[in-house]
């Protein structure tokens, strides 16, 4: 183990150690007397000395030294022999066995050996190695503590450092931390990597230099393991602009899996809302721990491996052995116990798998523990088979948990057993008993009791009672060549006989032993009479069918007759579904297809209806009864092809990306020739969405579906690779994507099924006319066999890992597409530079996502979660996908707006938000935000004043405005003093004529099509002035601006009073109102503009008593005209503003603003939660 570096002095110790390995920096040594066969006298003496020493004083037999060339100091890193000329070293690690010390040596070679060459200073090498080893010791200690204690002291210390160093809000939970190096060019920076629920953070303080790095998970576009010149294995984080490498982890595999899980969880929670609601593991991000992530990864593997429902939760995974009667021995593997299943998977891939739904289980019993059968249990199922498991650790608690869940399953779904027949465990009877029917798989067909049939007819009389192919194949069953027809029927009977033999030996229910033998039978092609029933078994749709009696009939009753967008899409596609097959040239087949698709859309409105579902459902109806076809569709859409049939078909795109990587791995020559593999991916998308049904003849494609139901998506991946390999030469010689498409389409159109007993069905997707030259056909059985032999080595675990890796890239690709589409719409309408708009979009998106996460965590403190409007909705148009609320807008306003008004900024931001919120849903979009910001930065003076004006009238300014209690809300300031504009030289200038003409011009030039803004009241005008005063604070021309705005304010106050008096007099008609206002503003002997005495002003005030006056108002034209009279104000509003510096500061300060907001908002809510 690694030891804390400690200086040790040993003299004449060279003869006690023997060098085993050496390099330019490290030496591995063995202590004499250990590992020697005969041994010399020295070795025997050393061995005897070690043997008589107390156990606490004994020396470990192996160690490693650090050798710095040219230095007189050597450091043992994991125990061995001192070099000549030195008797001082640091003990850093010990090894009790050669295997242990070799692990340390290998780690040093892979992570440190090449790195040390970049240091010029020898002391730096020693410091770096010692620091690294200390960090490894700390990490080992924390790992051991974490296993023993929920919140170990070391983790608490790391949490304190994390909070102090990065200043995140308290809700930003630290998940785990690791010691590692972050590479900056060719130089590694030793430090600590902190992984929290939303961020990847790195901190280093090395050689007097501090480095802080914060990368939000949502910004990561690629997460991969790679290597560079110095290190064989590193973790590379790729964001939009940078790549960062992290290395020298004690356990890189563990770190990468945790990082992959965190990135996947965060991206799916924030960006993939359609799936987020379906995954309960993502619902509580604030509660995520390292153990939770590891459990989640194991859960996802379990569900993917056995293709079980997403809601299935794993409770236990134990090593055990299962008695396999076909091999007459116990097979080593693992048992997986979940909510409603007990599953087994052999350690040897494909050797034996078993799925036991608890609803099929009759009893779970412990047997007597013997030396031959240690810790055995017997699980008996309803088809009178029993499964014996042995070598189960902690058997008592395992059985107790299984019995509790078994009782719960039977309580939720009561089971009635058929005891009328006494059949042994090899009887060809398939029990799938439910409350209202007893289905048996006997004599190769599903038989229902008469009572059950009558009950079903009463409940759903319109449902088609049998598979369509059994009704509609007779029309085309007469073959012109009777010999060929007889030959095909004979081959079909042989297949049936093989399957019957297999059922006898391996079982015929959903609980059958699934081995390599059954995979070979599936690859040969399932007999048509068994196809639908085996699809039900392989997909476990039979369990759903038996567990939900009457469910489908009720759905049909509820959904039929309703008209909506989904039903219109379904109706449009009904007659495009296998139009070449006679079953869908008839209203019977069309009606059954309509009912299944409509019922599923009603069951799962998140998916509703997607194109390609019609083709898949048509084939399911051919081989299965209507209700069975419905549950097969459920299994495909919700379990076997997750995320395929939703708004953005994320799952299909992820698998296309995985397929590209598999092409590079298995067909490198083709990948090298096809520079852009995305072209192949676009061609192959239909392969995955329709399981080859839309591009192969039907009789061939159903064999692909056979393999899919048994092996899942792996079968489609390997068949796709086999198709590409078969056409590699043609693809390499193709000149463009169109020619490549023709090559693949022609090949797939000529894939034949020589064993199909029915007549060939014409392909509506054929690209080629019959009169072209003959094309050699390929038998589907040969193609499937090649796919298994050449590309069948991909495991479920590898595919799930690739899916997780590529899901990040696909989701970020969607985000980039959204961003580019939004910018393309916004750029022509604003004057902000495109690169600045990109940064603004990133800030806006970050705030929007932060809102969603923050509100979720805040709602955790309330007894009942508060309703939240969706901030990110991928189903909306691009420009409306991200939206922010008032609080988040205030943060963005403070970060990027040029109109900062000190304490008044937040109030101005609230008014701006109310102005932009046209539809009153309390959310605004990016386009509205940027348009407002563009006026502030690039608008002309009149546009800026107009915006400010609108911010101080309704709806922006409300009666309940936070600043409404200002003392200025009361009667206005006195306007008794005369208005005189003073120049710096002391001369006075009368602006009466100039103002009069300006108001007339503005009135004439007003755009008649534009709605006239309402006039501003006393209270609104005072708020307007207050905002202007706040905006001038800390401006270099602050004093001049204050003097100018005081002058303009006085002028406008007097204009408002004159207008008030004229309004109350009512002596002029509307036609002459404008002229009257101008004459009222500027009478030749008006005391407002003359050198009037206070007495005269008082006289005027008495002439217009307050109670007789009308409403005090000023218009936008008045304000603009008055502001134009002061050059300092004109300069302020027309000076160029730099948005780039604001954006740079915003990127730095956005986290601190979030921290302040979180702390401010969380405290009162916490108090409320504790009441």
TrEMBL record:
The keyword Oxidoreductase belongs to this UniProt entry's keyword annotation: no
Start and end residues of each Rab-GAP TBC domain: 525-712
Coiled-coil spans in chain: 988-1019
One BP term from GO: system process
Keyword Repeat: yes
SMART domains: GRAM, TBC
Keywords, sorted A to Z: Coiled coil, GTPase activation, Repeat
CDD domains with a match to the protein in the record: PH-GRAM1_TBC1D8 (cd13349), PH-GRAM2_TBC1D8 (cd13353)
UniProt xrefs under InterPro entries: EF-hand-dom_pair, GRAM, PH-like_dom_sf, Rab-GAP-TBC_dom, Rab-GAP_TBC_sf, TBC1D8_PH-GRAM1, TBC1D8_PH-GRAM2
GO MF term set: GTPase activator activity
Described purpose of this protein according to its UniProt entry: May act as a GTPase-activating protein for Rab family protein(s).
Protein name: TBC1 domain family member 8
């Amino acid at each position: 183990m690694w030891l804390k570096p400690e200086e040790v002095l040993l003299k004449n110790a060279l003869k006690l150690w023997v060098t085993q390995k050496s390099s330019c920096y490290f030496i591995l040594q063995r202590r004499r007397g250990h590992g020697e066969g005969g041994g010399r006298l020295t070795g025997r003496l050393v061995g005897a000395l070690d043997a008589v020493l107390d156990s606490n004083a004994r020396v470990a037999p192996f160690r490693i030294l650090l050798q710095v060339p040219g230095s007189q100091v050597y450091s043992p890193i994991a125990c061995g022999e001192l070099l000549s000329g030195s008797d001082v070293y640091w003990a850093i690690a010990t090894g009790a066995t050669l295997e242990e010390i070799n692990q340390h040596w290998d780690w040093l070679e892979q992570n440190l050996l090449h790195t040390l060459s970049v240091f010029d200073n020898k002391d730096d090498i020693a410091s770096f190695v010692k620091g690294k080893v200390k960090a490894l010791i700390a990490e080992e200690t924390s790992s051991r503590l974490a296993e023993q204690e929920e919140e170990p002291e070391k983790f608490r210390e790391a949490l304190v450092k994390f909070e102090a160093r990065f200043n995140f809000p308290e809700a930003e939970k630290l998940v785990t931390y690791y010691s590692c190096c972050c590479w900056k060019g060719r130089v590694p920076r030793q430090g600590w990597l902190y992984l929290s629920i939303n961020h990847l953070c790195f901190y280093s303080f090395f050689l007097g230099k501090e480095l802080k790095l914060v990368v939000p998970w949502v910004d990561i576009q690629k997460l991969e393991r790679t290597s560079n010149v110095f290190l064989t294995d590193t973790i590379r984080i790729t964001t939009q602009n940078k790549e960062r490498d992290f290395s020298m982890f004690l356990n890189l595999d563990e770190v990468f899996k945790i990082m992959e899980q965190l990135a996947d969880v965060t991206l799916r929670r924030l960006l993939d809302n359609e799936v987020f609601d379906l995954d309960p593991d993502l619902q509580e991000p604030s509660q995520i721990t390292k153990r939770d992530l590891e459990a989640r990864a194991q859960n996802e593997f379990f569900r993917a491996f056995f293709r079980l429902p997403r809601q299935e939760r794993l409770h236990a995974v134990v090593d055990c052995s299962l008695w396999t009667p076909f091999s007459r021995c116990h097979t080593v593997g693992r048992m997986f116990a979940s909510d409603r299943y007990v599953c087994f998977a052999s350690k040897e891939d494909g050797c034996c798998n078993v799925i036991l739904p608890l609803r099929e289980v009759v009893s779970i019993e412990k047997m007597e523990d013997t030396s031959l059968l240690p810790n055995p249990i017997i699980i008996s199922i309803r088809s009178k088979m029993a499964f014996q498991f042995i070598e189960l650790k902690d058997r008592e608690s395992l059985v107790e948990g299984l019995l509790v869940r078994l009782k719960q399953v039977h309580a939720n779904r009561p089971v009635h057993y058929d005891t009328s027949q006494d059949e042994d465990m090899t009887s060809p009877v398939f029990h799938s008993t439910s409350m209202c029917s007893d289905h048996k798989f006997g004599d190769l067909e599903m038989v229902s009791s008469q009572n059950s049939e009558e009950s079903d007819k009463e409940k759903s009389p319109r449902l088609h009672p049998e598979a369509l192919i059994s009704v509609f194949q007779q029309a085309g069953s007469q073959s012109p060549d009777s010999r060929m027809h007889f030959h095909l029927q004979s081959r079909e009977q042989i297949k049936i006989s093989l399957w019957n033999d297999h059922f006898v030996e391996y079982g015929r229910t959903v609980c059958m032993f699934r081995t390599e033998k059954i995979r070979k039978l599936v690859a040969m092609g399932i007999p048509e009479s068994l196809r639908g029933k085996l699809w039900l078994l392989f997909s476990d749709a039979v369990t759903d069918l038996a567990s939900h009696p009457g469910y489908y009939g009720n759905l049909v009753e509820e959904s039929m007759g309703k008209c909506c967008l989904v039903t219109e899409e379904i109706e449009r596609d009904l007659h495009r579904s296998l139009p070449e097959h006679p079953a869908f040239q008839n209203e019977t087949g069309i009606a059954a297809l309509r009912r299944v698709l409509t019922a599923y859309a009603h069951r799962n409105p998140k998916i509703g209806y997607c194109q390609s579902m019609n083709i898949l459902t048509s084939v399911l109806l051919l081989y299965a009864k209507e209700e069975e076809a419905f549950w097969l569709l459920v299994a495909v859409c919700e379990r076997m092809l997750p995320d395929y049939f939703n708004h953005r078909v994320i799952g299909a795109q992820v698998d296309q990306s995985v397929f590209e990587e598999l092409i590079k791995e298995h067909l490198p020559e083709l990948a090298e020739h096809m520079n852009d593999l995305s072209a192949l991916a676009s061609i192959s998308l239909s392969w995955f969405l329709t399981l080859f049904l839309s591009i192969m003849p039907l009789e061939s494609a159903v064999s692909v579906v056979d393999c899919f139901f048994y092996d899942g998506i792996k079968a489609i991946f390997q068949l796709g690779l086999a198709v590409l390999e078969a056409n590699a030469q043609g693809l390499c010689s193709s000149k463009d994507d169109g020619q490549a498409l023709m090559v693949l389409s022609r090949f797939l159109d000529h894939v034949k099924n020589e064993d199909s007993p029915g007549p060939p069905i014409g392909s509506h997707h054929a690209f080629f006319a019959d009169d072209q030259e003959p094309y050699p056909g390929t038998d589907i059985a040969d193609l499937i066999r090649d796919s298994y032999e050449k590309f069948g080595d991909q495991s479920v675990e590898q595919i799930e890992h690739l899916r997780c890796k590529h899901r990040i890239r696909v989701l970020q690709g969607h985000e980039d597409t959204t961003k580019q589409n939004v910018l393309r719409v916004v750029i022509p309408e604003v004057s902000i530079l495109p690169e600045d708009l990109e940064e603004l979009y990133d800030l806006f998106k970050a705030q929007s996502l932060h809102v969603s996460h923050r509100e979720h965590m805040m709602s955790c403190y309330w007894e009942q979660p508060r309703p939240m409007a969706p901030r990110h909705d991928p189903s909306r148009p691009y420009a409306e996908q991200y939206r922010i609320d008032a609080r988040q807008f205030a943060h963005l306003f403070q970060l990027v707006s040029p109109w900062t008004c000190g304490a008044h900024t937040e109030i101005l931001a609230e008014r701006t938000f109310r102005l932009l919120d046209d539809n009153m849903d309390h959310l605004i979009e990016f386009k509205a935000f940027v348009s407002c910001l563009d006026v502030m930065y690039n608008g002309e003076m009149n546009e800026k004043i107009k915006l400010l004006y609108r911010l101080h009238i309704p709806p922006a300014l409300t009666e309940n405005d936070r600043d409404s209690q200002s003392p200025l809300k009361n009667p206005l300031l006195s306007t008794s003093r005369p208005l005189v504009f003073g120049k710096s030289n002391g001369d006075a200038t009368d602006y009466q004529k100039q103002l009069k003409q300006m108001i007339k011009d503005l009135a004439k030039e007003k755009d008649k099509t534009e709605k006239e803004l309402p006039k501003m009241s006393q209270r609104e005008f005072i708020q307007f002035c207050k905002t202007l005063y706040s905006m001038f604070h800390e401006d270099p021309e602050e004093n001049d601006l204050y003097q100018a705005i005081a002058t303009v304010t006085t002028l406008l106050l007097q204009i408002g009073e004159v207008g008030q008096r004229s309004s109350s007099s009512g002596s002029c008609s509307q036609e002459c109102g404008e002229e009257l206002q101008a004459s009222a503003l500027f009478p030749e002997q008006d005391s407002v503009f003359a050198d009037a005495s206070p007495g005269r002003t008082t006289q005027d005030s008495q002439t217009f008593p307050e109670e007789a006056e009308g409403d005090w108002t000023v218009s936008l034209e008045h304000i603009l005209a008055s502001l134009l009279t002061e050059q300092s104000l004109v300069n302020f509003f027309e000076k160029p503003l730099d948005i780039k510096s604001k954006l740079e500061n915003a990127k730095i300060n956005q986290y601190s603003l979030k921290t302040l907001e979180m702390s401010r908002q969380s405290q009162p809510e916490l108090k409320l939660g504790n009441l």
